[in-house]
Amino acid sequence: MDRPQNILITGAAGYIGGSILSDFVSGTNGSIAGARIHAVVRSEQQVHTLSKLGVNILNFELSDEAAVAAAIDKNESNSMDYLLVSNLLQALGRRKAVVNTPVYLIHSSVTTWYSEEGGWPHGNLKDTDAIYEKEKELDIPHPIRETNVFLVKKAKECGVTSFNLAIPNIYGVGTGEGRKISILIPALIQASIALKKVHKFDKDGYPPAAHISDVVALYRLVVEHVLQEQKIPNGKDGYYFVQAHRAPWWAYMEALAKSLYARGLVADSEVETWPSDEAAAQALHFPAQFIRAMGTASGGLEPVNAYRLGWQPKWDEQMFLDHADDEVQALLDLGKVRTSLFDKIMTSATN
């Protein structure tokens, strides 16, 4: 391939985006190693933090349409988006019209939406099913559904090849230069320490999950296929469930309780049931309308597309349970998680 290969990573100071950036920069094999990497951040402090990586760092908000357009035009970049899609799709579409080369966008959605508690009415689901058609026909106001539908329609309109990776509950310490821990599990640990008691919901959940290293490995696989111009499911067929295993919440809360009690951070090793969903939302600092889905959802998802690409996750359910103490240590080492990030994600999804 003669033309330059460019990758634009948004959210490059975040948990997922930062870990992807770190992996791409450190890799020495494959097409990514020869690509020009550009990273989007939102503050001068983040620019300083990432400056040592030797990549082109861009400082702007994705809500700034002019800044997004300028970044795409200047860097001729393929893109990877974690919060907003509209401005990127329009800018990529204009870029394609000018240079007449393929452009791509990898969007990160969430698996929680595809559960009964999350509002999904169709039951069990493979990522090879006609998900887009199902979502398009639903008359359910939900920011994730609306963004997923918009992604497919707008990408086709702009001539952009799109992929939608549905992210599960992620755990493990990230490798980026910015935020290194996830949101949900650190919030559960943080609330337990504050209340001196570990809590669970009145209904057990068994949602999809994946270690951050396995999530990054799938993004690498997708990008390698893109850069090598290999045709893989995209657009309305381009849904990928990033599910390495399931997370048994009640069993995990018991593992956290043992860890926290051994460290003297909670009063005892017993797990108590939240008195109400509202109490859980208040303690965890999450939006009350989503707390039930976050704490009790299971969903019958079957990932197919990722494994067809050759994805081979290294972490499984037992490893997840066995390393609960690592999550406690990570929170103690790295400080409080900013659960307000969840509000920003949900707000962005509706714009």
TrEMBL record:
GO molecular function terms here?
A: aldehyde dehydrogenase (NAD+) activity
NmrA-like domain mapped to chain residues: 5-74
- Coiled-coil annotation reads none
Which Pfam family, giving just one, matches this sequence? NmrA
**Protein name per its UniProtKB record:** NAD(P)-binding protein
UniProt source species? Lophiostoma macrostomum CBS 122681
User: Taxonomic classification, please?
Assistant: Eukaryota, Fungi, Dikarya, Ascomycota, Pezizomycotina
Annotated Gene Ontology cellular component terms: cytoplasm
